[in-house]
Amino acid sequence: MDRIAVYPGSFDPMTNGHTDIVERCKALFDKVHLGILQNPQKAPLFTAEERLEMIQEIYADDSAVQVHAFDGLLVDFAEQLGARAIIRGLRAPTDLEYELQMALMNRRLRDRIETLFMVPREEFTFVSSSLIKEVCQFGGSVEGLVPSQVELRLVEKFR
Ligand code: PNS
Hints:
Blueprint: E1 4-9, H1 16-26, E2 31-37, H2 48-58, E3 65-70, H3 74-80, E4 85-89, H4 96-109, E5 114-118, H5 129-137, H6 148-158
The structure holds 4'-phosphopantetheine.
Protein backbone atom coordinates (compact mmCIF):
# COMPACT_ATOMS: atom_id res chain seq x y z
CA MET A 1 0.00 0.00 0.00
CA ASP A 2 1.28 3.48 -0.88
CA ARG A 3 2.36 5.72 1.99
CA ILE A 4 0.56 8.99 1.30
CA ALA A 5 1.04 12.37 2.97
CA VAL A 6 -0.73 15.68 2.66
CA TYR A 7 1.26 18.88 3.04
CA PRO A 8 -1.27 21.72 3.42
CA GLY A 9 -0.73 25.45 3.57
CA SER A 10 -1.52 28.84 2.16
CA PHE A 11 1.70 28.78 0.12
CA ASP A 12 1.26 32.50 -0.65
CA PRO A 13 3.84 32.07 -2.09
CA MET A 14 5.81 28.83 -1.84
CA THR A 15 9.31 29.37 -0.43
CA ASN A 16 12.48 27.30 -0.42
CA GLY A 17 11.60 26.37 3.17
CA HIS A 18 8.45 24.71 1.81
CA THR A 19 10.28 22.97 -1.05
CA ASP A 20 12.86 21.68 1.44
CA ILE A 21 10.07 20.10 3.49
CA VAL A 22 8.61 18.51 0.33
CA GLU A 23 11.99 16.91 -0.47
CA ARG A 24 12.22 15.53 3.07
CA CYS A 25 8.66 14.14 2.79
CA LYS A 26 9.51 12.37 -0.43
CA ALA A 27 12.12 10.33 1.44
CA LEU A 28 9.41 9.04 3.79
CA PHE A 29 6.30 8.79 1.61
CA ASP A 30 5.47 7.37 -1.83
CA LYS A 31 3.19 10.27 -2.67
CA VAL A 32 3.03 13.82 -1.34
CA HIS A 33 -0.11 15.83 -2.03
CA LEU A 34 0.29 19.58 -1.63
CA GLY A 35 -2.99 21.18 -0.57
CA ILE A 36 -3.32 24.88 -1.22
CA LEU A 37 -5.89 26.47 1.03
CA GLN A 38 -8.60 28.30 -0.84
CA ASN A 39 -9.92 30.51 1.92
CA PRO A 40 -12.52 33.10 0.94
CA GLN A 41 -11.94 34.90 4.26
CA LYS A 42 -8.26 35.50 3.52
CA ALA A 43 -6.93 38.07 1.05
CA PRO A 44 -3.85 36.38 -0.40
CA LEU A 45 -1.42 38.11 -2.74
CA PHE A 46 -1.77 35.29 -5.28
CA THR A 47 -5.15 33.75 -6.13
CA ALA A 48 -5.55 30.02 -5.50
CA GLU A 49 -5.33 29.48 -9.28
CA GLU A 50 -2.06 31.41 -9.49
CA ARG A 51 -0.59 29.47 -6.56
CA LEU A 52 -1.76 26.19 -8.08
CA GLU A 53 -0.16 27.07 -11.43
CA MET A 54 3.12 28.16 -9.85
CA ILE A 55 3.46 25.06 -7.70
CA GLN A 56 2.44 22.76 -10.54
CA GLU A 57 5.24 24.33 -12.61
CA ILE A 58 7.73 23.62 -9.81
CA TYR A 59 6.74 19.94 -9.63
CA ALA A 60 5.91 19.41 -13.32
CA ASP A 61 8.52 16.63 -13.66
CA ASP A 62 8.00 15.04 -10.27
CA SER A 63 5.47 12.20 -10.23
CA ALA A 64 5.77 11.82 -6.43
CA VAL A 65 4.21 15.26 -5.88
CA GLN A 66 0.67 16.30 -6.76
CA VAL A 67 -0.79 19.74 -6.28
CA HIS A 68 -4.39 20.61 -5.40
CA ALA A 69 -6.40 23.57 -4.17
CA PHE A 70 -8.87 22.73 -1.41
CA ASP A 71 -11.47 24.31 0.81
CA GLY A 72 -13.36 22.90 3.77
CA LEU A 73 -11.75 20.78 6.44
CA LEU A 74 -8.19 19.60 6.01
CA VAL A 75 -8.97 16.18 7.50
CA ASP A 76 -11.70 15.63 4.87
CA PHE A 77 -9.27 16.57 2.11
CA ALA A 78 -6.62 14.22 3.57
CA GLU A 79 -9.12 11.39 3.89
CA GLN A 80 -10.28 11.76 0.27
CA LEU A 81 -6.67 11.29 -0.84
CA GLY A 82 -6.15 8.25 1.39
CA ALA A 83 -3.47 10.05 3.42
CA ARG A 84 -2.45 8.81 6.86
CA ALA A 85 -0.28 11.85 7.62
CA ILE A 86 -0.55 15.62 7.59
CA ILE A 87 2.83 17.32 7.31
CA ARG A 88 3.55 20.70 8.87
CA GLY A 89 6.85 22.54 8.88
CA LEU A 90 8.21 23.95 12.14
CA ARG A 91 10.72 26.77 11.89
CA ALA A 92 10.88 27.94 15.49
CA PRO A 93 9.40 27.13 18.91
CA THR A 94 6.98 30.04 18.42
CA ASP A 95 5.28 28.10 15.62
CA LEU A 96 4.44 25.30 18.03
CA GLU A 97 1.55 26.80 19.97
CA TYR A 98 -0.65 27.28 16.88
CA GLU A 99 0.53 24.03 15.31
CA LEU A 100 -0.22 22.00 18.43
CA GLN A 101 -3.76 23.38 18.59
CA MET A 102 -4.36 22.47 14.96
CA ALA A 103 -2.83 19.00 15.36
CA LEU A 104 -5.01 18.22 18.37
CA MET A 105 -8.16 19.56 16.72
CA ASN A 106 -7.43 17.54 13.58
CA ARG A 107 -6.84 14.44 15.73
CA ARG A 108 -10.17 15.01 17.44
CA LEU A 109 -11.84 15.29 14.05
CA ARG A 110 -10.05 12.26 12.52
CA ASP A 111 -8.12 10.15 14.98
CA ARG A 112 -6.47 7.91 12.38
CA ILE A 113 -4.68 10.77 10.60
CA GLU A 114 -1.40 11.75 12.27
CA THR A 115 0.19 15.20 12.13
CA LEU A 116 3.95 15.04 11.60
CA PHE A 117 6.16 18.07 12.17
CA MET A 118 9.23 18.48 10.02
CA VAL A 119 12.05 20.98 10.34
CA PRO A 120 13.46 22.67 7.23
CA ARG A 121 17.15 23.15 6.62
CA GLU A 122 18.34 25.78 9.08
CA GLU A 123 19.25 28.32 6.40
CA PHE A 124 15.52 28.62 5.65
CA THR A 125 14.24 28.89 9.23
CA PHE A 126 13.93 32.69 8.99
CA VAL A 127 12.05 32.54 5.68
CA SER A 128 8.29 33.09 5.72
CA SER A 129 5.86 33.86 2.91
CA SER A 130 4.90 37.14 4.61
CA LEU A 131 8.50 38.35 4.86
CA ILE A 132 9.13 37.37 1.25
CA LYS A 133 6.14 39.47 0.13
CA GLU A 134 7.22 42.43 2.23
CA VAL A 135 10.77 42.39 0.90
CA CYS A 136 9.57 42.10 -2.70
CA GLN A 137 7.01 44.84 -2.28
CA PHE A 138 9.78 47.28 -1.45
CA GLY A 139 12.10 46.10 -4.20
CA GLY A 140 14.41 43.81 -2.19
CA SER A 141 15.87 40.62 -3.63
CA VAL A 142 14.59 37.21 -2.54
CA GLU A 143 16.92 35.26 -4.80
CA GLY A 144 17.79 31.88 -3.30
CA LEU A 145 14.88 32.04 -0.87
CA VAL A 146 12.07 31.08 -3.26
CA PRO A 147 11.93 28.86 -6.38
CA SER A 148 12.76 30.77 -9.57
CA GLN A 149 9.17 30.38 -10.85
CA VAL A 150 7.95 32.17 -7.72
CA GLU A 151 10.59 34.89 -7.95
CA LEU A 152 9.44 35.70 -11.49
CA ARG A 153 5.77 35.92 -10.48
CA LEU A 154 6.62 38.13 -7.51
CA VAL A 155 8.54 40.55 -9.71
CA GLU A 156 5.58 40.66 -12.14
CA LYS A 157 3.10 41.20 -9.30
CA PHE A 158 4.95 44.17 -7.82
CA ARG A 159 6.09 45.72 -11.09
O1 PNS B 1 0.14 27.94 5.68
P1 PNS B 1 -0.92 28.14 6.74
O2 PNS B 1 -1.80 29.33 6.39
O3 PNS B 1 -0.36 28.21 8.12
O4 PNS B 1 -1.86 26.82 6.65
C1 PNS B 1 -3.00 26.71 7.47
C2 PNS B 1 -3.85 25.49 7.09
C3 PNS B 1 -4.18 25.49 5.61
C4 PNS B 1 -3.09 24.21 7.40
C5 PNS B 1 -5.13 25.54 7.98
O5 PNS B 1 -5.69 26.82 7.90
C6 PNS B 1 -6.18 24.53 7.57
O6 PNS B 1 -6.01 23.35 7.75
N1 PNS B 1 -7.30 25.01 6.99
C7 PNS B 1 -8.37 24.17 6.51
C8 PNS B 1 -9.62 24.28 7.39
C9 PNS B 1 -9.51 23.37 8.60
O7 PNS B 1 -9.43 22.16 8.49
N2 PNS B 1 -9.52 24.00 9.78
C10 PNS B 1 -9.37 23.30 11.04
C11 PNS B 1 -7.90 23.10 11.34
S1 PNS B 1 -7.66 22.54 12.96
